[in-house]
Records
---
Amino acid sequence: MDTYRVIIRARFDGLTDAQRETLREQADACEIGFREGGSLAYDRSVSWFTFRFQTEAEDDTEAQLAALDALAYPFNKETIGVTNMTEISSRALRRRG
């Protein structure tokens, strides 16, 4: 089974002052990594963010966007990048061989 890593880059949009302050307080605790449940990372400017997750389903992006919506922070989706990790491993092995 293939493993996919997905990065969603987006811009916070229409945050309330309370939401912005909550995010700023949590900014230093952001962990960048690929997990099945996803990880949200941003800096203290609270303008752009990335949401990273790892999945075994090729087309799991919509489910993860729904999970991102569940965080209840308004945003505008900018880019989504999907990488099949199996293909990367195969290409690296072929280059070495």
---
Amino acid sequence: MQLQMDIPALHDFIASTFPQVQGDFFVDMLAPGRIAVQMQVGDQHLRPGGTISGPAMFALADVTIYLLILAHIGPKALAVTTSCNLDFMRKPAAGQPLVCDARLLKLGKSLAVSDALIHSAGQAGPVARASMTYAIPPA
């Protein structure tokens, strides 16, 4: 699998296409078939009980896999999530950054399938696991 976009291109794409989340997600690593994205956790990501909310972890997984797919197909903003399964495994530490490591399992002409593990800084083991399928817009 050959990359069509590098880390700066992905950051520029997010800044221009989704300015509402600019500065929330940072690509730490990108390689063919792999990506790691970090999310700095703030008060807006917390829920009662002193933990990070499920929607915040979903957003991290979704953005991570979206960027992984775009890195391989180019800047196609209309690639969309068609299926998602998210397993919450451990309570993440509030106030600690989350990192999502994702793999591209299959990249077809119309669908892309990926999985991801979300880790909380300073905590052993993943806090969540995601499996997502994206529809790729026609050329």
---
Amino acid sequence: MKTILPLHAALFAETPRVLLSNDAFSVELFRYPSGIEAVKLINSRGTVTVLPFYGQMVWDASFDGHTLTMGSGFKQPLPGKDIVDTYGCFAFHSGLLANGCPSPQDSHPLHGEMACTRMDSAWIELEEGALTLRGEVEYIKGFGHRYRAEPAVTLLAGRPRLRMTMAVTNLSGNPMPLQYMCHMNYAWVAGGHFSQSIPEGAFRLRTSVPAHVRPTPQWQAYTRQLAEKPEGFDGLHRPEMCDPEIVFFADDLPQYGEQVTFSLTSPQGYGFSTTFDTAQFSHATRWLLHNADQQVAAFVLPATCRPEGYLAAERAGTLLTLAPGESRQFEVETGLTEA
């Protein structure tokens, strides 16, 4: 049996209120001082805080006392039109018409229009063993594209993991471009190391330099070494070498199997992992940044293409197209690594 609880802006106040509670789950609603609504999904292992009407970002997540979320100067989500206005969340939906870092010739915002979009509706679904926050928004432009996006976040009973999904349907009478990345900004784990089910040599260093990156001589020397030998990257032992950011790409993931897993393990023994199907996500990005303002070890960002903007995907032949009425679905499972 499925229980559905609609969410409305009037339900949210600065004082948290419990919407539901049972032996496996509880749900709290509250509003940040910035005015943005939030839903806290709770199970026996931890909490996931989602912004139901603000791009359905996952603002924060923690399990068994370990935070999954990047370090940043943002103490709360802030209203904005682009993701840079509120870049402190654990995860957001990058896309859908374009994603990644725009080139000077691109016209789209950083990581696309979906990240900060105002959702039309949101609701809670409670089933046996699963608690899900769903949302829906219709994007429409005169003389432009029209689509329906349906994101969801699911918390599982007794497990330190969550599922993020996205479904997108082309509602217009014309073909629609599609670029999508599940952008998970994981916490920096000092001394942590990476592992994955694909070969180590599958990752290649990004050699282009986006406009927001300001290279230093030290960084340029280090990245020249990594460009020649990417497998020489020694994990999260030297944070000073990840300022500015270090980015790796892995392409054509279906060649490595139907499903892939990527992990970040701490010296203390706990770790994070992410699993997804390569038929949905054919590319992976690894993004590392450590400075006074941001500390992030995004050990994998599953995507349909490299995050280098619309025109780069078009040139590379990785830009997807949805026919009128066509839909695509994406799903990622992530969280603490389980034995």
